[in-house]
Design brief:
The chain is of the alpha/beta class. The protein has 2 domains: 327 residues, 3-Layer(aba) Sandwich (Aminopeptidase), CATH 3.40.630.10; 188 residues, Glucose Oxidase, domain 1, CATH 3.50.30.30. Strands 1, 2, 11, 14, 15, 18, 19, 20, 21 and 22 form a 10-stranded mixed sheet that branches. Strands 4-3-13-6-9-10-12-5 form an 8-stranded mixed sheet. Strands 7-8 form a two-stranded antiparallel sheet. The protein is globular and about 75 Å long.
């Protein structure tokens, strides 16, 4: 049912009269909102914007479009330069013509084909020459509070740490997900003496096939120019190994990829061992500065005191740009990832304007850059916000919410971590939507999008996906999309099915959620049992 918040009480009789009218109008309202949402998606995911890669002309055009839409919805500028917050980056791109990579074992040297057996990701500290041994360190994690350490007894000094993606089932999901991030892994590996990493994607849990991963390897790698915000400092080599060719790297070690994958599937401890082979590389990287903006607009709160506080509704505006062609198409349009979220952001702002809703707290609408590079735009904003950080009370983030079928179930990442979970449950109940937990926690999506930048600064947050019943047609549609269209050129405006009406309903739900959080007397708080509560406590201590 289409609902707008009421600031005055109305009689039960009036409610009954209004209920019938609202119920009859709800579908049409959702359809209209869905059509408007799709119009914004079609522009943002058009070939003209060439995939909106951060720093590109296409991204800049998208940012200007969003700023104009924010202005039309009567949002006040919320950036540092009008609606924009410029973010400075360093761009690093491998020159593969002048780069070589080889496995060396004794007198035998095997040259590797970049993109076939492995590829490299450049960082600001990538070395020009590498001649280093390798050590397989299981999942590459050291988690004292879980009494788990892959690095105990391993000599990593001057070595490349090789690890399988994922993490041990013995560590609970929130902690495991946090420790699986590249930044946390590298912190432990660097402390143990490693000079770089080599990641082997677990083929049994791989969302994107190797061909698509490797096909995009020559995209520039971006890092924040603010070195204090970098999470890969000191990483001299970052390599990804094709799991199908991993045995070439493991040769002579007495272990095989099949053995390692079997142990992971059986939830058994992974082996850890010094590898017989070394890596020898000559790496040429082209470096250049780059600037790209976050885009922010604000509805000023109506309460004299609470208006100083902000509820952020966010979505990332960037995608992958142009890359390896698939079926003749080299534009990675990013319609669901994440033109869909930015278009919903605009519709939520429109709901506030059209309804005349005046929230007590201020509401900021934030479209960020650099998500595909590791949540860089949101990480910059969370550390250098355009409003006082202490006044940001929550982040409600939308990334690839997947309106591929009717909205009956809404899976919420972070549902039981903060009081925001109570808020979305209340909104869902009123709208007849079942609010459920993340159905694929092993995919670590709660730490793989922009909400995590705010969480690491102690700010409660939620993220969302359309949900389904296990074993249902909707689950198959969801999983098929991830395996065939995620980070592929086919994530475009020609794909089917897209349920525009469901997308409109979702946007209206999040409008109700944002207004509810903005109107409450108390700020959202972390639950006492939440793993993520520690970030807020650490910030208070500092």
């Amino acid at each position: 049912m289409r609902r707008f918040p009421y600031r005055q009480a109305i009689s039960a009789a009036a409610v009954m009269i209004l209920f019938g009218a609202f119920a009859a109008a709800a579908t049409n309202d959702d359809k209209a909102e869905g059509h408007r949402w799709w119009d914004d998606v079609k522009y943002l995911a058009s070939d003209d914007l060439e995939g909106r890669m951060t720093g590109s002309p296409g991204y800049q055009a998208a940012a200007e479009y969003v700023a104009e839409r924010f202005k039309k919805e009567e949002l006040k500028p919320g950036g540092t330069v009008g609606y924009f917050q410029p973010v400075q980056f360093e761009s690093h791109q491998i020159d593969e013509v002048r780069t070589t990579l080889a496995i060396v074992q004794g007198e035998k040297k095997t040259d590797l084909r970049l993109g076939k057996e492995a590829f490299l990701r450049p960082t600001g500290d990538t070395a020009k020459q590498i001649d280093a041994g390798m050590v397989f360190v299981g999942y590459g994690m050291s988690v004292p509070e879980a009494h788990y350490d892959d690095l105990t007894g391993m000599d990593l000094r001057g070595k490349i740490a090789v690890y399988l993606t994922g993490g041990p089932s013995t560590i609970k999901d929130p902690l495991r997900a946090h420790e699986e991030s590249t930044g946390e892994r590298w912190k432990a590996l660097k402390a143990a003496g490693a000079i770089g990493i080599a990641t082997i994607p677990n083929p049994s849990a791989q969302e994107i096939p190797w061909e698509r991963i490797a096909g995009n390897r020559q995209r520039p790698s971006l890092e924040l120019a603010d070195a204090t915000l970098r999470r890969d400092q000191g990483m001299q080599i970052a390599m990804t190994i094709n799991p199908s060719d991993a045995d070439e790297f493991l040769a002579g070690s007495g272990h095989t990829m099949a053995e390692i994958v079997a142990a992971a599937k059986a939830k058994q401890p992974l082996p850890r061992f010094a590898m017989a082979a070394k890596i020898r590389a000559t790496i040429t990287v082209d470096n250049s500065p780059l600037e790209s903006p976050n885009v922010a607009g604000v509805i000023e709160g109506s309460d004299p005191e609470l208006k100083k506080e902000y509820v952020i509704v966010s979505a990332h505006l960037d995608h992958l740009g142009k890359g390896a062609a698939v079926n003749g198409d080299d534009i990675y349009n990013g319609a669901m990832d994440n033109a869909s979220g930015v278009a919903a952001l605009i519709q939520i702002a429109r709901d506030f304007r059209e309804s005349g809703t005046k929230p007590k707290r201020s509401v900021m609408f934030l479209a960020v850059c650099g998500e595909e590079e590791g949540e860089l735009g949101s990480w910059y904003f969370a550390n250098h916000p355009s409003v006082p950080e202490k006044d940001i009370v929550a982040d409600i983030n939308m990334d690839m919410f997947m309106p591929l079928f009717p909205l009956k179930y809404l899976q919420v990442q972070g549902l039981d971590e903060s009081t925001l979970g109570d808020d979305i449950r209340a909104v869902g109940k009123a709208d007849g939507i079942d609010v459920i937990e993340d159905e694929q926690p092993q995919a670590n999506r709660f730490i793989r999008s922009d909400q995590y930048s705010f969480i690491q600064r102690g700010i409660p947050a939620l993220a969302f996906k359309f949900g389904y019943v296990k074993g249902s047609r909707e689950e198959k549609i969801f999983n098929d999309w991830v395996h065939t269209r995620y980070h592929a050129p086919s994530d475009d405006v020609d794909q089917k099915p897209i349920d525009q009406e469901a997308a409109g309903k979702f946007a209206h739900m999040l409008f109700l959620l944002a207004d509810r959080v903005a109107d409450q007397a108390a700020r959202p708080t972390w639950e006492p049992t939440s793993f993520f509560r520690r970030f807020a406590e650490e910030k208070q201590q500092n």
